[in-house]
């Protein structure tokens, strides 16, 4: 299962990332979204995908998860079953 953590480079998200790493989650299946590019360096060291994106803006993150960039299949009706979104 893939996991998306919006705001994952902020206080709660950073601690969640640290806990997921300590629990041996497959870090390649976790994507962190955050609008603060400098803070993303912290989560990148855990080996997960870190995407600089502002969820208020449709560009960037929307294209990423709709298959317009490499590595993701287009969203389908079962998007929710493919990803667990942790808010």
Characterization of the model:
With 87 residues, the protein is α/β, with parallel strands linked by helices. Helices cover 30% and strands 20% of the residues. The protein contains 4 helices and 4 strands. Strands 3-2-1-4 form a 4-stranded parallel sheet. The chain is globular.
Largest sheet: 4 strands, parallel
> In angstroms, what is the radius of gyration?
12 Å
Strand content of the residues, in percent? 15-25%
Structural class: alpha/beta
- Output mean pLDDT: 75
Strands ordered across the widest β-sheet:
3-2-1-4
Q: What gross morphology would you assign?
A: globular
E-strand count:
4
Low-confidence stretches: 70-80
Fraction of helical residues? 25-40%
| Number of distinct helices | 4
Task: Describe the structure in brief.
The protein has four helices and four strands. The protein is of the alpha/beta class and 87 residues long. It has a domain at 17-73.
List keywords for this structure.
4 helices, single chain, 87 residues, globular, alpha/beta, four-stranded parallel sheet
Write the layout of secondary structure elements.
Elements: E1 2-6, H1 11-22, E2 30-34, H2 40-44, E3 49-52, H3 61-65, H4 79-82, E4 83-85
Parallel strand pairs: 1-2, 1-4, 2-3
